[in-house]
Amino acid sequence: QPSRLDWDRWVMMGLIGFSVGFLGFLLHQIIEIISEYKWEKAEDFIRDGDIAVAYIWVLGISLLLVIVGSVLVVYFRPSAGGSGMPELIGFLNGTVVRHIFNVKTFAVKFLSCACAVASGLPVGPEGPMIHMGGLIGAGLSQFRSGTLGFALPFFQRFRNSEDRRNFIQAGAGAGVASAFGAPVGGLLFAMEEVSSFWNMKLTWQTFFCCMIATFTTDLFNSAFTSFQYKGSFGLFRAEKYILFQVRNEIPVNILAFVPTVVLGVLGGLLGGLFTFCNLKIVRGRRALLAKLSDDWKRKVVRVSELCIIITLTVTASVFLPAAFPCSPFTCYSSHRYPSPATVLTGVANNTKLYPPMQTLTVTASVFLPAAFRCSPFTCYSSHNDVIRSPECLSPENHTIHTENDVSLYTCPPGVVTRFDNNSLTTNKTFNQVATLMFVTGEEAIHHLFSRETHHEFSYGPLFAVLAIYFFLACWTAGSAISSGLVVPMVLIGALYGRIVGLSMVSMFGVMDKTVNEYWAWMDPGAFALIGAASFFGGVSRLTMSLTVIMMEMTNDVQFLLPIMVSIMVAKWVGDFVTHPLYHALLELKCIPFLDAEPVIIHEGDKPVNLELHMARDVMAAPPCVISTRESVANLAHLLLDTPHGGFPVVHSSREGQDKTFYGMITRIELSVILFHPELFETRENPSEEDPEVTLLDYQQTTIHKLYNTDEIEELLTKFCDDPDYEQQFVNLQPYVNQSALSVRDNFSLHRTYIIFRTLGLRHLTVVDDTNKVVGIITRKDLMGFHLEESLAAILQQQLEQNN
Amino acid sequence: QPSRLDWDRWVMMGLIGFSVGFLGFLLHQIIEIISEYKWEKAEDFIRDGDIAVAYIWVLGISLLLVIVGSVLVVYFRPSAGGSGMPELIGFLNGTVVRHIFNVKTFAVKFLSCACAVASGLPVGPEGPMIHMGGLIGAGLSQFRSGTLGFALPFFQRFRNSEDRRNFIQAGAGAGVASAFGAPVGGLLFAMEEVSSFWNMKLTWQTFFCCMIATFTTDLFNSAFTSFQYKGSFGLFRAEKYILFQVRNEIPVNILAFVPTVVLGVLGGLLGGLFTFCNLKIVRGRRALLAKLSDDWKRKVVRVSELCIIITLTVTASVFLPAAFPCSPFTCYSSHRYPSPATVLTGVANNTKLYPPMQTLTVTASVFLPAAFRCSPFTCYSSHNDVIRSPECLSPENHTIHTENDVSLYTCPPGVVTRFDNNSLTTNKTFNQVATLMFVTGEEAIHHLFSRETHHEFSYGPLFAVLAIYFFLACWTAGSAISSGLVVPMVLIGALYGRIVGLSMVSMFGVMDKTVNEYWAWMDPGAFALIGAASFFGGVSRLTMSLTVIMMEMTNDVQFLLPIMVSIMVAKWVGDFVTHPLYHALLELKCIPFLDAEPVIIHEGDKPVNLELHMARDVMAAPPCVISTRESVANLAHLLLDTPHGGFPVVHSSREGQDKTFYGMITRIELSVILFHPELFETRENPSEEDPEVTLLDYQQTTIHKLYNTDEIEELLTKFCDDPDYEQQFVNLQPYVNQSALSVRDNFSLHRTYIIFRTLGLRHLTVVDDTNKVVGIITRKDLMGFHLEESLAAILQQQLEQNN
Known about the structure:
Two copies of one chain form a homodimer.
Chain A: H1 7-47, H2 51-76, H3 85-93, H4 103-119, H5 126-142, E1 144-145, E2 150-151, H6 161-180, H7 183-194, H8 203-223, E3 224-225, E4 228-229, E5 235-236, H9 238-241, E6 252-253, H10 257-291, H11 295-319, E7 326-328, H12 340-349, H13 362-371, E8 416-418, E9 424-426, E10 429-431, H14 432-437, H15 441-449, H16 459-476, H17 486-508, H18 524-540, H19 544-554, H20 560-577, H21 581-588, E11 602-603, E12 606-607, E13 626-627, E14 629-631, H22 632-641, E15 646-651, E16 660-666, H23 667-674, E17 681-682, H24 698-702, H25 709-721, E18 728-731, E19 742-744, H26 749-758, E20 763-767, E21 773-778, H27 779-782, H28 784-802
Helix pairs in contact in A: 1-2, 1-4, 1-5, 1-6, 1-8, 2-4, 2-11, 3-21, 4-5, 5-6, 6-7, 6-8, 7-8, 7-19, 10-18, 10-20, 11-16, 15-17, 16-17, 17-18, 18-20, 19-20, 22-23, 22-25
């Protein structure tokens, strides 16, 4: 039997995927256009020797961007700050977080994120992309907006919290898929980290959504560069759509697992340190802000803090390279260029492709194209000893390359010469630190991941950049601008990974694929990748999804296993040190989060076995119950006096019998009923027992949540005050959800937790052995701290009884 | 707070992964050693002109293997036949399937599968690998065996059905991971297809298990070929560990989606046809066998059937190529070979690497190594018009290659000449059909997936092989040998995919990457891949996991999107035609399967809304209830007279009150209690209300399931017959599971189904509004046909009342 054809759900998933993908394209292009313009101008200034001008230029633009980005957040929508990940996770766990799915949040988030990343702050656009993906999922699926005040008559059947939740999850997954070009990773990320309740049936639809998002982003990026039509629309080139494509594949060796484990341990420790420092900074900032009396002062401080960070960042980017000498530059590697024709065209027409070439002397530009002619087996460049022999020699020597798009900074461009035997020589030099700092974070990661460039970076620059970047990234995360953590995490990990790789090169010498395939795994670029995975894992404690994202991001299936091992080790080590960052932030932001398994509560040293406790130990008792026929005044009192979202309804089937549990009714349903006075009846006029026709239909009781709260309050107060309403009754029977689950009071606490969590409940009624309501369990009652308190009280009581 | 450290679970997952991986290695090597020997000898005979000898040789070996493989299954363990997938899926859904996790099944399955694949039947080893993976998970995690009669004192805490189920799922995933070299695919496969209940917490552990499996298989395969140590232990070369590695990456173009959708539709239709034919054949076979009176006749028929199939297969493989002419052979493509040095060594020392070269004439072997010297941009081979100009010409011409490991069959080997300008020429020829039929299925897939070999296969051979293979594969699946369907599915799909690709080449001409990158997607090899995905999807209706498996199997991330689109279209089209094959087989094998969503029941034309029905409409009533104090005789009667697995226990908390639902007790627990006469008490000696110390501990009541059924029956009969036992009572209170869920009788049927399925229940007690037991729901009551019957009766009743 063919399964239900949810064509409308597929259409909606496609729409969400497309929108998220297009958004990803826009964000990517905006960031690219700004930062490319900024850095190119700056390079021009530096090449002319005007470091001061370059500094002022970069600082000016960056400051402007940061101020715009942070003012938007601080003054218009504080909830748009940060990555939005903890809020999203909390929401999908069942907590209502204000403003997270709101048009204004979306706009502020988009602009602020674009500014933050383009400014050169040590942040990435990935976290906000995930949040914005969720936002699109939430907004698009409902076809209405509270803020904008419209509701279109499409897809009304999705206007319920379950479908909305599913679309938000799909949107968040699409955000990952678009940001990393990783559709499978996006799906797994939505499953592992974002969602708390996952419906297997939706997996394929979510995957479709992620695919469409990746596809849309790639499709537009395939043709546009900086919003100009360049290239072929619809042609997906790997180098364009794979974020950090690895070009030279290296076979993995079992020996590679020794340094991988070391990197994993480092990742766990450094990840823990990062989380710890970041939380300290966030707490310190909060304490400082709390001391300030005025609101405007707080706002100014928050904006100024970011100005200080960007000033430090720009200063480091521009001046730090000057502290390091120029390194010699060797032949370009032409291994992977598709054909001489393409490359020639590329050099001739598309100077964007090779920015450093623009300013080469005429001599160089004449000889450079020739450099691409040489074929991989006959043209070798030598870099045995970088300091002593900067020439390209004969084919007998190693092929230790430097990439061709490194930053020259103040180093002289030099010339390239080609000899008859197809060998090349150059006296070009470049600046290692500038290659890492004088570009966007993504480009720096590209450089660090590059393979067969054993000597491109040496210890000094790597350590210097690592220290500065770690400090700045740690400070920035959590400040008042919309920003993601992925690029900083990958960059930091790649830096120490490359250091470990380089130390192996120092110990064992250069092992190249063409020389010794067995030892070719000793490549600093490969270890940069593993290091990145380990640090990402150490901070986020993501596992499966991270492994797949790293693989899809680099398109290097061969390193799947080392990546997984490093992530696993990093997670184990990290779990001994700190919480995962997102969960620590959840706690810090006071968002209650219910894990899939109950937390382990310790009584003294011993863990408490929740199987030995019962549902009655944690339930809230006595509960507020209502009868199937209740007076209007009572209902109004109940709604005014309690904040509960749902109430158990009791009913006695026969006259004189005790009232037993009948079902649940939600606050919204009650409010809607009270808004319809035609439903009120006096006791003298009892309706038939089981009315066939209900006066309110299902749509009315569920959809219209948009009542004005003031209006409701006014009405309720009227009902409370007017004694007439004590004699008016409502028959709630048709509106009660009779399929509300209940558990016995002696139900095991562990199993209660599992049922509550697995079925995604909000209220669970507790009944005694004759089905009388004795209590109610809500998510608050199952939170770790609450469990701890309740059980401690009970254990205390038992102890007293025994004495 | 760090999560619970389940080190023992991790160790167990690692062990399972390792064992499955090692098993995969063994199976792979055994198959390789046999089939390589068989085909090489056969090629030698053919090259000597002795086609008849070759035929007898191949037929002899294949027949022997098939007879061994099928006799093992037919005479020793019929349940080891087929792929084992439906049984595994059914078991994990909650049905007890006899013999599927048994040492004997394992041994028979392994040997039979090795024989079947090595014999050359149109089958693959993947399905059995999945079943064997599940078997290893089931066996290893328990550390005991009923058949072998031992139980080791390790990992006792895993001896419960939940953990066992989880390990079986992980093992099945590891089977996929090992068979396809696809760890992520294995995980997703376990999630999507194999398991019915998935615990998110275990995802990472399952992934670990899959990873270890892939790793182990690759590790051993990296060093061994045909069980001989060859190569480097621990060095993972992509060409070795990626099953169908794609070498020449082609950028995808948006236009490629037009033929992709066509392929998807074809896949859905042909997949439906395959399923339909296969089911017809299975039913026909069953009807035929049922007509035979004697058991031995049936067995002989089953073995002979396979002998006929293999005879047909061998005849087609050996004689069909003779019907097609020799095709000209062009230069080898040297694009991806690491270096001349490596290749030279390879040619000189490791003749296994290039089997066809072994028997080249001396001339050729002198010139051949030289062929690898040429570099990609200067050595071109021309194949513009395959028939007219079989020479390699100047660099201006296209580089349309033929692979270098195609089968020569009876074609003359010819010579290779190299000119001064590095261009090559050859007058070698090869046989297209022999290249596809005269090898193992995996090699044929390799050939079909090869890129930039536009003219390697022409229409005639492709259609001929497709027709024969489709028919043979359809017949073989379901016969009495252990066999998987993956290789046939991929091969059939690749064949018609290549036909579609070739038709585009015929229409638009050859578009090569070096000539026109934008149109390079028109590659028959690329469409063979998409076609394979579509047919696989059309038969199995797998979605997400299949996409990832196809990607990991070919290591071609670029084609992820077309693969997904084709699978999606194939699934949609296929769902209109037939059930997915595995689910159809489940039905055919009478294994009850409970889907995640209730089936849609139609009353007339209208679908029935299950929300409008109640739990009481389908429950089994009246249920067999027992009291907390029950007489031994009653219990024995109950166990003897009913086959139920669990019984609701009732209890009255106060004297005189009606008995209300108290909990559940399982059949096994009751049996165990009845085996302990020391628990029996007479009414005169009532124990305290709530005994602190139970006489049987938890381990005893749950672990020992291994009672002899005869013994139990004897004991129960004694209890029934002896009137003494009517006065002997047991206090069941300590053994009752008080946390058994119950629902009200007016609970919505849809929600009942969801709860039952989500929580993976086996029994759900139905109570009335005062908590009295009124019925019980088991999985049988929620099966589609049962729902249909119950609801039809109720609707009928309503109709009568209305009249």
